[in-house]
Fold this sequence. Notes:
Layout: H1 3-14, H2 20-39, H3 53-61, H4 66-85, H5 111-118, H6 125-139, H7 144-149, E1 155-156, E2 161-165, E3 171-175, H8 178-190, H9 215-228, H10 237-250, H11 255-262, H12 267-271, H13 278-288
Antiparallel strand pairs: 1-2, 2-3
Helix pairs in contact: 1-2, 2-4, 6-8, 6-10
Amino acid sequence: MDARVTEFLESLTLERGASRNTVLAYRNDLQELSAFLAAHGLDPDTVAGEALAPFAGALIERGLSHATVRRRMAAARAFLRHRAAIGARTAGVRDVPLPSERRRVPRALTAEEAIALVTAPDTAPLGLRDRVALELLYGAGLRVSELTALAPGDVDRELGLVRARGKGDAERIVPCGREALAALDRYLARGRPFLGAHQQSDALIVNVHGRRISRQGIFELVRGHARRSCLPDWVGPHALRHAFATHLVEGGADLRAVQEMLGHRRIATTEIYTHVAGTHLRDTFHAAHPRARVPVR
């Protein structure tokens, strides 16, 4: 990999406080860019953005999804912008081809399906572990990385609040329901002490050896319970986060509040959840807004 790419990745950590997962994602995206530039004799400090059009085309021809192509081109733009910011590059980066963003409507579980999934685990130690993991994914809308990073002290059991560490190590406080807290109490009393000879003290959700559970471990436990609940193959950890947001919007929650609970930087990211609640929101408008009740003449 080009040493300049390595320097950019280091800057993400040192200057921007990017998480390890973010840096790894940029690294993977920029490895192919480095290979493309080297193969075509192009220098990142002089290449015109429009010269990267064949790179975008090659990604598309490989059958990569629209979102993946957009992400890799956005990584290329961020890298070149960094080179310009430190004075190594004079050309702009606005001409880097960036496919238009497609707003993909997420598939959402119904409330009944979400509850069936969350309540599927048994009362064995691993089942109690799985139950609290599912409750926090659905009841607090956590990302997988946020769930695995939780420490025992991150859940205020008296106030019903969870401290989540999101993208870029940004922290937010999210409420969780009584069911999640009850599941946590059962897990701490009858589950966690029996997982491994010694539990990792700074990890809330642990594996069979008492160590912090991995992202893959969370994915496997969700998929396993989804299969046993006869749910579709697309149901994974993020489906519970989608369900959390969708069901809040369906219930009439303020979109700004949902944005804050999800940790979205832009309200536009949260607005996608209004698609499933269109009928509910329309009914709410007609029932509450004075102009909605004015008869048509």
